């Protein structure tokens, strides 16, 4: 067997192709809502967090952006009144990014199409059992390669 036929290379290649393909299919709906992929990811992570907020450092860890990268994204979202910054009650050096009502409305506007896209290009292709197994497998891998992906979820419940 050629080293280029290694199934590990195939697994990574397929994963990259699937993610790129799904992202390409979903981008038009996000763009129609005036959001980039990273802006949508930031807003949806805030929406799905307790109290709809995360420490900036935890948000950076969850999105795999640098601290300065997430600051630029939050700056843009703040200018559009989709996100607000709140001081951390226990650490003056830290701040939280919190989803605003306007940000929630923007998400609610794009969410039906986004969910339709997920259904059309991803979840409908799997049986319920396959989807459950796939999600379990993804969480297993995610927890090893990106243990910070759920950073700050417990603490974010404290945001006012």
TrEMBL record:
InterPro entries listed in its UniProt record: HTH_MarR-typ, MarR/SlyA-like, WH-like_DNA-bd_sf, WH_DNA-bd_sf
Pfam families associated with the record: MarR (PF01047)
Domain HTH marR-type, first and last residues per copy: 5-143
Stated name of the protein: MarR family winged helix-turn-helix transcriptional regulator
UniProt source species: Microtetraspora malaysiensis
């Amino acid at each position: 067997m050629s080293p280029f036929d290694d199934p590990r290379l195939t697994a990574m290649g397929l994963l990259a192709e699937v993610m790129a393909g799904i992202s390409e299919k979903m981008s038009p709906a996000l763009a129609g809502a005036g959001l980039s992929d990273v802006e949508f990811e930031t807003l949806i992570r805030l929406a799905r967090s307790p109290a709809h907020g995360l420490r900036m450092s935890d948000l950076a860890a969850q999105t795999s952006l640098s601290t300065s990268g997430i600051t630029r994204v939050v700056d843009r979202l703040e200018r559009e009144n989709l996100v607000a910054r709140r001081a951390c009650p226990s650490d003056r050096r830290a701040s939280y990014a919190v989803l605003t009502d306007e940000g929630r409305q923007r998400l609610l506007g794009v969410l039906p199409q986004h969910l339709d896209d997920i259904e059309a290009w991803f979840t409908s292709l799997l049986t319920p059992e396959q989807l459950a197994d796939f999600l379990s497998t993804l969480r297993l891998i995610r927890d090893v390669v990106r243990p910070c992906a759920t950073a700050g979820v417990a603490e974010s419940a404290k945001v006012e």
